Amino acid sequence: MTALTDMADLTLEDGIAVITIDNPPVNALSQGVRQGIKDGVEKCLADNAVKAIVLICAGRTFIAGADITEFGGAPKEPGLHETLDRMENADKPIVAAIHGTALGGGLETALCCHFRVCDSGARFGLPEVNLGLLPGAGGTQRLPRVVGAEKALQMMTSGVQIGAEEALATGLVEQIVDTDLRSGAVAFAHEVVASGQPLQRIRDRDDKLQSARGNPGLFDEFRKSIARKTRGFLAPEYNIRCIEAAVNLPFDEGIAVEQKLFMELMSGPQSRAQQYFFFAERQAAKIPDVPRDTPERPINKVGVIGAGTMGGGISMNMANVGIPVIIIETQQEALDRGLGIIRKNYENTAKKGRISADDVETRCGLITGSLDMQDLADCDLVIEAVYESLDLKKEIFTKLDGIVKAGAILASNTSALDINQIAAVTARPESVIGLHFFSPANVMKLLEIVRGDHTAKDVIKTSMSFAKRINKVAALVGVCPGFVGNRILFQRQAQAQQLIMEGALPHQVDKVLVDFGLPMGAFQMSDLAGLDIGWNKQASNGATIRDMLCEADRRGQKTGAGYYDYDENRTPSPSALVEKIILEFSAKDGIDRRVVSDQEILERCIYPMINEGAKILEEGIAIRASDIDVVWVYGYGWPLYRGGPMHYADSIGLDQIVATLRKYAEATGDATFEPAPLMVKLAEAGQGFSSL
Ligand code: 3HC
């Protein structure tokens, strides 16, 4: 064995050279890997004893892409293009032996080999779009030449991976090896040498592009089909343009288009934000005082209290990954309704072809119901998901503590209440934690995990791992009203209310927020959630706009009217009645209404959120600024291409945020605009939240 670099080595057996990449954890294409491949190939080409080359990786995966940590730094030789050209133009066969995931630059490397074999678990994808990029090492031109333009469009605009069987069917791999991958790949290389077949360079092919050439409407139709999902993102469109170039231009001209668009994306703010978020998400899983090797409690059976919208959605998460769940209700009718809705949800998913009819039965079979809390006795984790009443939750936790086995974790799905007070009614406060799911709980990726004063480290570790197991992204937060997500949301909602009192109307505020990239505006969100959450009919006396609307039975989407009027498809339109109510309220408060600019709306809705985020950091409620961003991207649909509120603040400059907040503090006299000391300190030092 010869070491090529500290990340690659070379062995020669019976005429077949094997270059092995070893750059844990994911064999990213760091400088040492590129150098190793290039040197290894050159050595083999110069050695008459070498008849063919196998490129394989050690560890858990084939190359998972370019080394993202190198992005933004000075280029290090050799470049990826240079390395891959050396491979593709080699006059000896190169066989990629793929296991794990061949992603991004990793798949591009494989596409520059002359042949590809894989094991049955291998997966393939070009996920650059998720980093606000496009494949920049020829992948945009080569993948469509192998799998066709349609498939390439799907894969490159969504980052979706395909498995080994599909890779074989599309011709992306020549063979699935069902024995040891290395020996299978070496045997394949021997066959290639023996057959004397010519070396295939993907760049020279264009048979798979023919059907797209005959279908000029393909690209525009595809654009339309993904428009809603990709609103605001640049990268999907740039990926499409590259595939259009692959179809319509000679290979080298296509590569030139790829390079130009890649550089444009790489130097833009969207990709910066998306790369930042890639690491933010992974960072959120790391808890400084809870070491990786903290033991975990086994979770084999889960109980959920409440079969309402949240309880049902939460239960589906467990059933989706094969964990049995028991749902507790107080009334048979409510239980039946809840279980019925779960079944209907699964059946609808099956109708869309996302799961099979068998999956529906398996998952529904994992969810049972009961009216007796004693049936929770053998659960490892119980998640309470009843409505937001501290007294009710305390009552439930007192009972649970007496029923559920020792060592089991008791969790509350509260979105704002004090976990410490809930934990205090039990004899096991160390086993009590907040697991705050976001609605719809079976869809939204975020799990806000709330650590109480006495929550044990193994309970935190177990909850973080459990989140991953049920395909959620967890962010650990501390106790305060609304935790991280809703506490920040309250600020925005309060400003939105204030803005309509001063002169804006709900649809104007909402349009600004939606144009910014949020999935819905402040008032659309209120209408969706229901204006009567926390509203008391008996006590209501028209003191707020919300009271007036609820009193008029405009309680949101569910009653067909709220801040907006809704048609039978739930399409909102501005309401003349609501406008009248708002104008009357302004007049009653003696407010002289004025034209409020879109810029003011944006700044007054978003900057107080950032300010609240800074206070949350000061108080230690969130561990890092990037955790706040994870909460807002995954819990509230903050546009990923803006990285999250704290990254967005850094991208604008904290000095500017502080100055603008002070301007509004002075103009409105509202103390919530006073910038948090932490933010002032950072701004004065010319730093951002990322420096913390
Ligand atoms: N570069 C640098 N580090 C990477 C990396 C990459 N491409 N991919 C993963 N890592 C790091 C992660 O940050 C993490 O580090 P940490 O342990 O310090 O937090 C570690 O590797 C393990 O990653 P995950 O926690 O994500 O491990 P999983 O097993 O859950 O997932 C994976 C593995 C599917 C490979 C996932 O890491 C992934 O999707 N990686 C990114 C793949 C990608 O986007 N590739 C394209 C890169 S851009 C490119 O190739 C440009 C080219 O076209 C020129």
UniProtKB/TrEMBL annotation:
Q: Where is the 3-hydroxyacyl-CoA dehydrogenase C-terminal domain?
A: 482-566, 601-687
Q: In which pathway does it act?
A: Lipid metabolism; fatty acid beta-oxidation
Enumerate the UniProt keywords alphabetically: Fatty acid metabolism, Isomerase, Lipid degradation, Lipid metabolism, Lyase, Multifunctional enzyme, NAD, Oxidoreductase, Peroxisome
Annotated PROSITE patterns: ENOYL_COA_HYDRATASE (PS00166)
Matching Gene3D superfamilies:
1.10.1040.50, 2-enoyl-CoA Hydratase, Chain A, domain 1, NAD(P)-binding Rossmann-like Domain
Which family is annotated?
Answer: In the N-terminal section; belongs to the enoyl-CoA hydratase/isomerase family.
Q: What is this protein called?
A: 3-hydroxyacyl-CoA dehydrogenase
Q: What is the lineage of its organism?
A: Bacteria, Pseudomonadati, Pseudomonadota, Gammaproteobacteria, Cellvibrionales
